[in-house]
Specification:
Blueprint (H helix, E strand, L loop, with lengths): L13 H18 L45 E7 L1 H5 L5 H9 L5 H4 L4 E9 L7 E6 L5 H5 L7 E5 L2 E6 L3 E7 L2 E5 L2 H9 L11 H5 L6 E6 H14 L4 H4 L2 H4 L1 E10 L3 E10 L2 H28 L4 H4 L3 H6 L4 E5 L2 E9 H5 L2 H34 L6 E3 L6 E3 H4 L7 H6 L9 H7 L20 E2 L1 E2 L24 E5 L12 E2 L16 E6 L4 E5 L4 H8 L9 H5 L23
Parallel strand pairs: 16-18
Antiparallel strand pairs: 1-2, 1-8, 2-3, 3-7, 4-5, 5-6, 6-7, 8-9, 9-10, 10-12, 11-12, 13-14, 15-17, 17-19, 19-20
Helix pairs in contact: 1-8
C-alpha cells in the first residue's frame, strides 16, 4: 500500500490521492516524454465503447505473460494502473537499476519479492463505490503474511467467505485470494465489494481499439476522466502544488485517458491517448501540453543555471530535459496522441547517478525531520518556558517517558499523545500500540517504513542542553543557541518511545554519531537551524558545540568547513578523550 507522503494529501481520501497520482502521470507522460524514433501508429477513429458488462472472474494467475491482465479490473471502475515488475526487472539492460533497488537499506519484504510478481494492479472503483484495492499476482505460490510482514509485525486475522484476511494496523487489510493472488485494501468492506464486483472485461469507457495499443505495455494507467473530475477538481483546489492547476485541461476536456510504457530491445517507449468529445476539446488539450512543455523547459534551464548541486545529482533529470523539445503530440479529430522514447542504454547508465541523487534526497529529508523536531522543541519551550528534559515524569511524578512522546502535540500528533498512557511503562501492552505507530519524523528515510527505532536523539550529561531533571531555559544557553547542539542523528537500537538518549561525558570518548550517510551526519542547533557535517569535523569544535555554557570560542563554520589538518573523528565525534577549549 502506498505510504502517506509529507504533503497535505494525507487528509484526502485514498481515491483522491490515487487520482492525483494518475493525473500527474498522464500529464507527465504528455509533457516530459522521452522522445526518440517515431512510433508507427494507425490513424483510425476510436470505436464506441462496449456497452455490455463483463462477468465476475477470478484473477488469471496463469494468464499469458507479455501483456497486461485485465481480468482483475472491475467493469465498473473509474481508474486503474497496472505494472509488470518481473518483466521489467528481468530486462538485461536494466540490470544495474535492479541491483540498485536491492541495495536500498529499507527494501521491504514486498520489495524483495517484486521480481517474482507478474503484475501489480491498483483499481479505483466508481466514486460511489468502495475505496481502492491493490491486486498482487505472482508467478509462484505466495502467502500474504510473507509478502507484507516485516520482522516483528503483528497482525490479526478475519474470515471472509472461507478466505483469510490479515489486519496489519488499522488501515491495511490483506486477503489471500488464491495461492498466487493477494488483495490489499484499507478496509474489509473494500475487499468484500471488490469480490462482489463484475470482472473479466474492459471497463465500458475504454474502447477496444485503444486498448489494443496498450495491452502489451509493461506499465499502463487509464482513467474515466468524466467520473474522476469531481475528485480531481477538489484535489487541485486543496493541493499545495501549483503545477496541478495548469494540468487541469488534461482531465477537464477528455472523456478518457490512457498512458503506457513499454520496454523493447533497446528502447523505452512511452505513449498516451486522450479521447475527447470534439475537435475543440482536443485542440485545447494539445495547446495545454505545448504550454506546459515550454514552461517546463524554461524552468529546467533556469534551475540548471542556479543549481549548485554536483553534476552526478542532476544527471537523472538530464534525459528528460534534453527530450522536452522533441516531444511529439498529434491530433486526429477528437483524439490526441503523444509519443516518445529513449535509449535503454541511457537509462541503464543512470544507476550511479540515481544512487547519488537518492543519497542526497535522503540527507535532505533527514535534515527536514530534524528541522521539524527542533521547531517542536522550540514551540514547547515557548509554551512552558523551558525545553522538556530528556526524561519526563508522568502525572504521578514517578513514571518516566521520553521527550519524543512529550512533544507529540507539537508535531500535530495530539491524538497519538492522548492514547499514550503516562502512568504506565513505555513498553506496557497499551503503550506498545503507540510504539508501532511511530511518526515518520522520528525515522531516518534510509530505514524501513515499519521500523520503530528512534534515529534522532538529544545528548545528556553535565553541561549539555539536556543535563538535568528540569528542562533548560533559553537564557541558560549562554554560549548562544546558534552554537549549541540540540539534536543529533545517530544509529541506536533504541525504540522511539523509550526514555533513553545518548550520554555525554567530557572525560570520556565522544559517542559515535551518524551512521546513515557515509562520511556525513546531520544535527540541529538550539536556534532551530539544521546542518550537514563532515566526519572530519575537529574534535575540539564538536565538544564546544555540545556544551551550552562552556564559554568556548567556536564558529559553526569550523564544523561546516573543517580543517583538513585535524585528525578525523568517528562519525563526527572523535574517540580520544579531550576537554573542550575554555576561554
Amino acid at each position: 500500500m502506498l505510504r502517506d507522503s509529507k504533503l497535505n494529501f494525507r487528509r484526502l481520501s485514498p481515491v483522491a490521492r490515487t487520482a492525483v497520482i494518475g493525473s500527474v502521470l498522464f500529464g507527465g507522460l504528455l509533457v516530459a516524454g522521452l522522445r526518440g524514433p517515431t512510433w508507427q501508429t494507425q490513424a483510425h477513429a476510436e470505436e464506441p465503447a462496449d456497452a455490455t458488462a463483463g462477468q465476475s472472474a477470478a484473477p488469471a494467475a496463469d494468464a499469458a505473460s507479455g501483456e497486461i491482465d485485465l481480468s482483475v479490473v472491475p467493469y465498473a471502475t473509474s481508474m486503474f494502473a497496472a505494472f509488470r515488475p518481473a518483466d521489467v526487472l528481468a530486462h538485461p539492460a536494466l540490470a544495474p537499476l535492479a541491483k540498485l533497488w536491492f541495495e536500498k537499506a529499507n527494501v521491504t519484504p514486498m520489495g524483495k519479492r517484486v521480481p517474482g510478481l507478474r503484475q501489480i494492479t491498483m483499481v479505483v472503483p466508481m466514486p460511489a463505490g468502495p475505496r481502492d484495492v491493490i491486486v498482487y499476482q505472482s508467478f509462484k505460490p505466495l502467502a500474504a503474511a510473507t509478502l507484507f510482514a516485516e520482522d516483528g509485525t503483528r497482525f490479526t486475522t478475519e474470515d471472509l467467505d472461507g478466505r483469510k484476511i490479515l489486519h496489519v494496523g488499522k488501515t491495511e487489510f490483506d486477503l489471500q485470494y488464491n495461492d498466487r493472488t493477494i488483495l490489499q485494501a484499507r478496509s474489509s468492506v473494500s475487499l468484500r465489494d471488490y469480490l462482489a464486483s463484475d470482472r473479466g472485461s474492459r471497463p465500458s469507457w475504454l474502447p477496444k481499439k485503444t486498448w489494443e495499443s496498450f495491452r502489451q505495455d509493461h506499465a499502463v494507467c487509464a482513467m474515466d476522466a468524466r467520473a474522476m473530475r469531481p475528485l480531481l477538481r477538489m484535489t487541485t483546489e486543496q493541493s499545495p502544488v501549483p503545477m496541478l492547476s495548469t494540468l487541469a485541461p488534461l482531465w477537464e476536456k477528455p472523456m478518457s485517458v490512457v498512458a503506457g510504457l513499454r520496454l523493447d530491445a533497446d528502447i523505452v517507449r512511452i505513449h498516451a491517448v486522450a479521447i475527447t468529445e470534439n475537435e475543440e476539446d482536443a485542440q485545447s488539450v494539445c495547446q495545454t501540453v505545448d504550454a506546459i512543455r515550454v514552461l517546463a523547459m524554461n524552468a529546467f534551464q533556469q534551475a540548471v543555471k542556479q543549481d549548485t548541486a554536483p553534476a552526478a545529482e542532476r544527471e537523472p533529470f538530464s534525459p528528460a530535459a534534453r527530450a522536452l523539445q522533441g516531444l511529439r503530440v498529434t491530433r486526429e479529430g477528437s483524439i490526441v496522441r503523444a509519443e516518445a522514447s529513449i535509449s535503454l542504454d541511457a537509462v541503464s547508465h543512470l544507476g550511479p547517478s540515481l544512487a547519488t541523487a537518492r543519497q542526497a534526497s535522503a540527507r535532505a529529508q533527514s535534515l527536514n525531520n530534524l528541522k521539524q523536531l527542533a521547531l517542536a522543541l522550540l514551540n514547547y519551550e515557548a509554551v512552558h518556558g523551558h525545553f522538556p528534559p530528556a526524561v519526563v515524569m508522568g502525572p504521578d511524578g514517578k513514571m518516566p517517558h521520553s521527550w519524543r512522546v512529550e512533544i507529540l502535540p507539537y508535531l500535530e500528533c495530539q491524538k497519538l499523545y492522548d492514547q499514550y498512557r503516562l502512568d504506565e511503562p513505555w513498553d506496557s501492552p497499551a503503550n506498545h500500540k503507540i510504539l508501532v505507530q511511530m511518526p515518520d519524523v522520528f525515522r531516518s528515510p534510509t530505514e524501513p517504513a515499519s521500523s520503530t527505532g528512534a534515529c534522532y536523539f538529544v545528548l545528556t550529561g553535565p553541561g549539555t542542553m539536556f543535563d538535568g531533571k528540569k528542562g533548560t531555559r533559553i537564557r541558560d544557553v549562554r554560549d548562544g543557541t546558534a552554537f549549541t547542539i540540540l539534536l543529533v542523528e545517530a544509529k541506536r537500537d533504541i525504540p522511539w518511545t523509550k526514555p533513553e538518549d545518548i550520554p555525554y561525558d567530557a572525560d570520556k570518548p565522544l559517542p559515535k554519531l551518524g551512521g546513515f550517510f557515509e562520511g556525513k551526519f546531520n544535527l540541529a542547533l538550539a536556534d532551530g537551524s539544521v546542518h550537514l557535517l563532515s566526519e572530519d569535523v575537529p574534535q575540539k569544535t564538536l565538544r564546544a558545540l555540545v556544551t551550552k555554557d562552556g564559554r568556548e570560542v567556536v564558529r559553526i563554520e569550523d564544523a561546516l568547513q573543517p580543517s583538513r589538518s585535524q585528525p578525523p573523528s568517528n562519525h563526527g565525534f572523535g574517540t580520544e578523550p579531550k576537554r573542550a577549549f575554555r576561554r
